[in-house]
Design goal:
Helices cover about 50% and strands about 15% of the residues. It is built from nine helices and twelve strands. Helix 5 packs antiparallel against helix 6 and helix 8 runs antiparallel to helix 9. The protein starts with a helix and ends in an 11-residue tail after the last strand.
Length: about 475
């Protein structure tokens, strides 16, 4: 989930929780207030009406007196009414034998809660809210008193119950709940709008920072961010600009130092070529005369000759590396038969009998023969010197690529050595530090492969031995650097 979605979700959730808490609290409080006011008003009205009727003149009122009491208690408001005598049955065989005035509904005695009956039977004016399928009702009950010595002090045994519908109040509460939902919905919409505005203000500099970071990672070291305001995002932008400026300065210094180092190596290598040429001539003379010299002098002459050749190879390798580093290395491409190129490399160095080949005929590719020869000579030479026979060269091809696999059957390379095989001046064994190799051969081989837009990799075979794989395109290159 993106930052915008998370901010919108957080704003919406906060709004929903806040609106639900506020609207819910207001709804509950208003509901209780409405019902409480209705209840108090109904109880007070019943108490007032009873005060106008009591005390009864007789403990056994007749139908006419009951009709009078019913009219006074209901006051024509459509409330239900019931009279009880004792604990079990109504006054008459039915809850109410007739409807006084023709507009008073009969109250079903079964709706009166037993708890309310007990409170009224004890002489209390009591009430209770009851919820049924047809809605909420308020039932109010009171005992009828009779006069004794002119004062209403004795229970007559007759109870009167009045029920009042709470449907108007329920409708008011429902309208209040609907308004609360509408208010919550409006608040949610307003919160989403505020969240969109807030995320827009926050995400714009964040996106700008991300874009600048990508450009910086791609090497655009002059990338900077416009700083607006003085908030935390502006501080981040200023920090980014300062970091980018320092990085640009350090990279510039490193590039200058690297260029100086490359130029120094190239200059030294070129300057050494002339004296090395003279030393090589002297070494040739020493080689010719070494056999006729006494043994210590002959051994010294051969050692000088060999080290001169090693130094010459090292200087030539340094010059070649400096060409790659400076971008001066170029390809001289020709359409060549790859199998013939491999055979020529082996014949030139006297290796045909030592190397097994699997080279299908008629596989051609557009390559620089000299540079591919350098790669193959290095790989096969290393396999012969440091691996174990048999050494093999196998060629495979598809319509776009060729692959040359050079393998030996020695112990292979240690896992710690594999990542560094193509590093410059890296030698797998410290014991070989004084060997004839310069430690640049494989690095130059990979550079030549990459100059062809190919690659050179190494791995260990499952049954032992190192496997170097040279993969090169067969034709020209497209705009993305791959074969067409």
């Amino acid at each position: 989930m993106g930052l915008r979605a998370r901010l919108l979700s957080a704003f919406a959730l906060l709004c929903v929780v806040t609106a639900a808490a506020v609207a819910g609290g207001i709804y509950v409080q208003a509901r209780n207030d409405i019902l409480q006011r209705t209840q108090d008003a109904a109880v007070q009205a019943m108490r007032s009406r009873m005060e106008t009727l009591f005390p009864l003149r007789s403990a056994a009122p007749g139908p006419d007196e009951l009709d009078e009491i019913a009219r006074a208690m209901t006051d024509g408001n459509g409330s239900g009414l019931a009279f009880y005598q004792g604990e079990h049955s109504p006054v008459s065989p039915q809850p109410w034998p007739r409807s006084p005035g023709g507009n008073v509904p009969i109250l079903d005695p079964g709706v009166i809660p037993p708890q309310l009956r007990r409170m009224v039977a004890d002489g209390e004016l009591a009430w209770q809210r009851v919820v049924r399928q047809d809605g909420a009702w308020l039932i109010i009950g009171a005992p009828l008193l009779i006069a004794e010595r002119g004062r209403p002090t004795r229970l007559s045994g007759i109870e009167v119950y009045v029920v009042r519908s709470l449907l108007p109040e329920q409708r008011s509460i429902d309208r209040l709940a609907a308004r609360a939902w509408l208010t919550g919905g409006a608040a949610l919409a307003f919160a989403v709008i505020l969240a969109l505005l807030a995320t827009r203000g926050v995400l714009r500099p964040v996106r700008e920072l991300g874009r600048a970071a990508r450009l910086l990672g791609e090497g655009e070291l002059r990338t900077r961010i416009a700083v607006n305001g003085s908030d935390e995002l502006a501080d981040v932008a200023r920090t980014f600009n300062n970091t980018a400026a320092e990085l640009e300065r350090h990279v510039k210094q490193l590039r200058e130092m690297e260029a100086d180092a490359r130029r120094f190596v190239a200059d030294v290598s070129h300057e050494l070529r002339t004296p090395l040429a003279a030393l090589a001539a002297v070494a040739d003379v020493l080689d010719e005369e070494a056999a006729g010299l006494p043994e210590p002098a002959g051994r010294a002459a051969r050692l000088v000759s060999q080290e001169t050749l090693n130094l010459t190879g090292l200087v030539n390798d340094l010059i070649e590396i400096s060409r790659f580093d400076s971008g001066a290395a170029a390809l001289a491409l020709n359409e060549v038969d790859v199998a013939e190129l491999v055979h020529a490399t082996l014949r030139t160095r006297g290796w045909p009998e030592q190397v097994h080949t699997e080279l299908p005929p008629a596989v051609t590719a557009r390559l620089d023969p000299r540079r591919v020869d350098v790669i193959l000579a290095n790989l096969v030479g290393n396999a012969l010197r440091h691996g174990e026979p048999p050494v093999s060269v196998r060629l495979s091809a598809d319509p776009h690529w060729i692959a040359l696999e050079v393998r030996d059957h020695g112990p292979g390379l240690d896992a710690a050595v594999l990542p560094h095989v193509f590093d410059r001046f890296y030698k797998a064994s410290a014991a070989r530090a004084r060997s004839e190799g310069s430690g640049l051969g494989l690095a130059i081989a990979r550079e030549n492969a990459r100059l062809h837009r190919g690659d050179l990799t190494v791995t260990n075979a499952p049954d032992g031995g190192a496997v170097f794989t040279l993969r090169l395109p067969r034709g020209a290159f497209d705009a993305d650097g791959g074969p067409e």
